[in-house]
Amino acid sequence: MATQDIASTAAAPRFAAVPNLPPPDAGRIRELAGLVERHAPQEGICPTSIPRLSAIKLSAPSEELVHALHQPAVCIIAQGGKRVMLRDEVYTYDASRFLVFSTDLPISAQVTHATFNAPYLCFRLDLDPAEVSELVLQLGPPAVPRAKTSRGLFLSKVTDGMLDAAIRLMRLLDSPEDAAMLAPLAARELVYRLLRSEQGERLAQVARTDSHASRVLRAVSWLKSNFAEPLKVDELARDCCMSTSSLHHHFRAVTSMSPLQYQKQLRLQEARRLLLSEGIEVSRAGYTVGYESASQFSREYSRLFGVPPSKDVSRLRDAGGQ
C-alpha cells in the first residue's frame, strides 16, 4: 500500500534511533527462527499453547499496510524485516533488534523482507501489566535517569539474555508437561531483561502508579471501551487525576496523538472491521462507531486508509481480503 494510506500524518517520517550495541549471537537467532517456523503451521499470527505467546510467519512481503490496535507486547524478529508506523514515526527493524509496545497503540505495519524460502519469522509475547508492575516494584528505583521520552513504542538491540529466555519459552512448546510450571518463569525472565535493557525504563514508566504514563493508560483504557461515545476531554482528564492540558501533553507524549485523534483511529479501525467481517452498510458502520455524519465518516476513512469505505471494501475483497 502506498504511503498515502497514512496521509493523516503530514510530516515526514522520523526514524527511531537504535542504541549502538554488539550484535546478538547468530546461533541463537537461527535457533529462535527454527522454533518460530516449526510452531507457525500457517501464515500470519499463530497463537500457541502457552498463554500470551504467538509465532508469526509470512512467506512474502505485505502487499498492504495492516492497520491494527496493537496491545502491549514484545516482538523479536528471528528472520526477515518489518516496519511499523505510529503516525509520522517509522520503526524499521529486523533480526538484530526487538520492538516493545508498552501500551495499546493504533499502528500501521508492513513486512518488508520475506520470501518462501526465508519467511518472515517473529516471536511475540503479550505483556501482562500486573507482571510488569510487580517486577518494577521489586527492581526499585532506576539505576539510570528516568527516560526522557514516554513514547509507548520503542526499539532496541536484542541481547543474548533476551534470546535465551525467548528460546526457552519456545522450547517448552515441545514439553507441555513442563510448560505449565516453567513457561511463566521464562516469560518473567524475558520481561525482567526488557526492564534491564537500555530502554527498559520506558516500559517501567507505565507501571509506576505515580507516573503520568500510568494515568495516560487509564485514559487509553477508557477510550478502548467507549470509543463510540462522545469524548469529553475535561471529564476524562478529571477521571485520570490530571488537568486537561496535562492530559493532552502526556497523552501525546505516550501515543504521539491527542485523545481525540486516538479515538478517531479506534473508530475507523473498528468500522473497517465491521465492513469487511460483517458486511454491513457503510452508513451503518459509521453510525455504529460513533459518527453522526456520513460525509465526515467517509472523509476521515479516506484520509486514513487512502480510499473511501466502499472502494476499500471492494478492493480488499477482490484481493482476497475476505
TrEMBL record:
Matches recorded under SUPFAM superfamilies: Homeodomain-like (SSF46689)
Keyword vocabulary terms for this entry: DNA-binding, Transcription, Transcription regulation
The keyword DNA-binding appears for this protein: yes
Pfam families: AraC_N, HTH_18
Domain of life: Bacteria
HTH araC/xylS-type domain boundaries: 217-315
Entry-linked InterPro entries: Homeodomain-like_sf, HTH_AraC, HTH_AraC-typ_CS, Tscrpt_reg_HTH_AraC_N
UniProt keyword annotation of Transcription present: yes
SMART domains named among the record's database cross-references: HTH_ARAC
Entry-linked PANTHER family: ARAC-FAMILY TRANSCRIPTIONAL REGULATOR, TRANSCRIPTIONAL REGULATORY PROTEIN
Record protein name field: AraC family transcriptional regulator CmrA
Species whose genome carries this gene: Ideonella azotifigens
Gene this chain is encoded by: cmrA
